[in-house]
Amino acid sequence: MKKIILGFIALAGFQTIMAQGLQINANIKNMPDNVTASLIDGMANKIVDSAKVVGGAFQLKASVANPGIFVISFAGTPIKFQLPMFVGNDQLSINGDMKDASNIVYKGSATQDLYLQYMKVLTPQIEGLFGAKNAAATAQGASKDSALKQVSIRETGIANSLTELIKANSQSPVSTLFLLQVTNFVPSVKENLGTYYDLLSGAAKTGPFAEYINKTISTAGVGNMGTVLPEFKQNDVNGKSVSLASFRGKYVLVDFWASWCGPCRAENPNVVKTYNAYKNKNFTVLGVSLDQDKARWLEAIKKDGLTWTHVSDLKYWNNAVAVQFGIQSIPANFLLDPNGVVIGRDLRGEDLSRILSEKIK
Hints:
By secondary structure, this protein is of the alpha+beta class. It is built from ten helices and 15 strands. The longest helix is centred in the middle third of the chain and has 29 residues, at 110-138.
């Protein structure tokens, strides 16, 4: 699952944080009374304020340390409805109709204005890339070659657009975030992350997104094919420390996932199937969870039938092992041979089973 939703693009000419804090005044037509509106800090994944909706109106407040991702969610609405935004300590007004989410009007935040502009430009390109990847996954023969060419063309287009956007908004912290997000699905951007990052300056090189990119650049060689995956320790579900070194002598899949990650949960049946086929043939799995809630973590382990060893420090995206290895999105994994050497990365579907069938006779 992509680490955080694409597209929270910030203002060029980023302003110093205002002392009064973030205040949101909203009026949304067709919103039932007594619905609870909650303001969620996307980086911390926690509610920072909430209010009851009365006559479509509500007010939310927060103190923002760094401009970033926020989402207003609503509990008790007949349809799923959320309002994503990129804001700092702004005075923001939101007006519109719950039945016409595409025409919600935001005023008072230049960062949000620019976010909407970026979405208008980039969303069609991103959707086109994902469509091309889906087509390439099912194509055969010459059709597959043609489909893969389309994927490459679309990736190049996004990379070019990214370059233009960064140059136009080189001091924006959300340009930093957008750079971070694009590395998840455009290989050329990921491979040249340092070059793209050098296009940024000023406020774009401060704050959590910049810190994350700096860590990513510093860990760029970690987990490369043919290298030994570095040692780590983390506590299991019972609070007992587990080391990666304790798995030496076995083939092991180091699997990064979380209970809240839909793509991870969708991939789990494939891992379970392969684990059951090879667990008595010198193979095992070590799950590293990016959960925050221990109860939900344990519930997901039980529900999905994940009967291997699991570890976590329950720190969400700040999981120490994920940070150590520069994990930007989940699911992510490393397949190690008995010497701890990486022989596979980010395996999906039948990929894991195929490699093990070649290695384990």
